Amino acid sequence: MITDTLEAVRNASYQLALIGPDTINRVLEAVADELLQHTDELLAANAEDLARMSPDDPKYDRLKLTAERLRGIAADTRRVAELPSPLDIVLDDRILPNGLHLQKVSVPFGVIGVIYEARPNVSFDVFSLCFKSGSACVLKGGSDADCSNRAIVRLIHEVLARFDIDPHTVELLPASREATTELLGAVGYIDVLIPRGGKQLIQYVRQHAAVPVIETGAGVCHTYFDAAGDLQKGTAIVCNAKTRRVSVCNALDCLLVHRARLADLPDLCAPLQESHVRIYADAEAFQALQGHYPDQLLEPAADDSFGTEFLDYKMAVRTVANVQEAAAHIRANGSKHSECIVTEETDTARYFSRVVDAACVYTNAPTSFTDGAQFGLGAEIGISTQKLHARGPMGLREMTTYKWLIEGNGQVRPR
Fold it and tell me: Which of 45, 229, 242, 328 falls between 20 and 30 A from 53, CA-CA?
């Protein structure tokens, strides 16, 4: 059954090369229109999923759709339609001494599989990016979001059928472990597999997949407040990075503060009280915060306070002696996702930017900007933390591969 679905998606992918860019854009615009026209239906399906999850679950916010969020998804879909096609871009063009003309040209992957958890917005994002970049896609969502995902894919299928495009261009597999196992072993059907979710999901896919995987890693994100940091900037950056949306991978997990600035730590953390952020502080930071931050929200840090992706209103604080110690802490506890330094010292910022190994390294700006839409890429399919093929927010350009086109005039290779 699942094999039949995968074969149908593979066959649909061959037809995408024949669809012109104007038609692709009109389909995406139509999907955005239908999304807005069927907001009530999508929210009703999402409500069924939400009813099965506790509001206290960190994944609840990721699962939840609202009219405002749907409008944002529609806007992202339209932005993808407005972007230039990532296909048929000549990446290299040369004529060899023997007269052969070589061109390196961007092309679709073919079929992209995505395994994700309680994030129904991913269904729209993946379809729009894959369709615009000429690939079919196989979605494997979690059971938490199954009603939402099925309503979304049903809507997309209706639009594709209206344009006489094979609905198998996007398929949603059953929300079962058996479907996950089949997808991980779908050699010959899936060209690349992308997991989007927590650390456990990503590790499981990486360890068990027989098809190529692009790892979109969990985010253990740090902000280092340097001796030369501006307190006003730092306060705004820490608050935004921690509290804008705690359930996303670019949210702040650990604040590193230079020992010389411990007196400023209460002011740096003061806005976090409004969101009831629980702080796990090392001994020096705890002493600096005690009496200035609510006792019920302040705890001594434990060993596992550092290197944890909280996905909640929680944050660790550690005191460091210098930027070198901050970089060493990040090296030991980070996930190569997004890291930030707050400093007015150019040489210190340059050192941090060069030494810290992460997909995105910020100076005087919060890690919350790590997002495909914020980078001007339209929607994103994930944040890659690996170093092969793509790194950081993966937009349209990152959803293509390339091939060499060679034109000759009868040349043969000497023996």
Answer: 242
Give the tokens for residue 226: 């340097």
Burial of 391 (0-12, 13-18, 19+ CB in 10 A): middle
Contact call for residues 16 and 136 (beta carbons, < 8 A): yes
* Sole residue written with tokens 């040489």: 347
Sort strands 278-281 and 314-320 into parallel, antiparallel or unpaired: parallel
Q: At what angle do helices 121-132 and 67-82 cross, to 10 degrees?
A: 10
Dihedral over Cα of 400, 191, 213, 19: its sign: positive
* Average pLDDT of the residues in 224-229: 98
Residues 6 or more apart whose Cβ sits within 8 Å of residue 125? 73, 76, 379, 380, 381
- H helical segments located in 67-217: 67-82, 121-132, 146-162, 177-184, 199-208
CA atoms within a 13 Å half-sphere pointing along the CA-CB vector of 224: 34
Residue type, 343: T
Task: For residue 111, give the nearest of 90, 126, 91 by alpha carbon.
Answer: 126
User: Mind listing the pLDDT tens digit for each residue in 67-103?
Assistant: 999 999 999 899 999 999 999 999 999 999 999 999 9
pLDDT at 378: 67
Q: Where are the beta strands (DSSP E) in 186-235?
A: 192-196, 221-225
